[in-house]
Amino acid sequence: MMKEVQILDKKFILTLSAETIDKEVSRVAEEINRDFKDKNPIFLAVLNGAFMFAADLMKKVNIPSEISFVKLASYQGLNSTGVIKDVMGLSENIKDRVVVIVEDIVDTGVTMQHMLEVLGMHNPKEIHIATLLTKPDKLKVSLNIDYNAIAIPNDFIVGYGLDYDGYGRNLPEIYTLKQK
Ligand code: IMP
Ligand code: MG
User: What is the pLDDT of residues 77-99, one digit of tens each?
Assistant: First the structure.
């Protein structure tokens, strides 16, 4: 029997172990260490969801770099509201800098597209996306995702930073909503 967790009114089943996540995060870190060696990147982790990915990724990044945190939310409960907020907390000057956005999941891609637009107005030298997860079947905008740890099917998940109505972010593994 696969491990299950109950979060609020829903049951979720273990689908990605901590070991699997760690392996793919390590791979992405290696790619980043290789590609940004002499580029002095600034990582912008998107709160709240990316906090765990960002922490684990940055422990494996060994090149000169900065990290900062921004907030931008578009999700409530199980469905995207389509409501986009501004990028909050961008206190660093990213003009002429190489920016790497660190995100938990690219679902439709609308959030990332909006974020690229907003950050682009600050005239960075380059912007790259590093995301823990993608749902390729749900992507509805054209996005260049340079670094993706894991691609998943079109299901709702929680854990490793991702939440269901605010809960489940602390789980060290990733769980998928159980279909009834
Ligand atoms: P997008 O704009 O549709 O790409 O939505 C991206 C945001 O929706 C992510 O940053 C997450 O916060 C949230 N999200 C998308 N899919 C899931 C999921 O399966 N579980 C929890 N949050 C999700
Ligand atoms: Mg997010």
Answer: 555 555 555 788 888 799 999 99
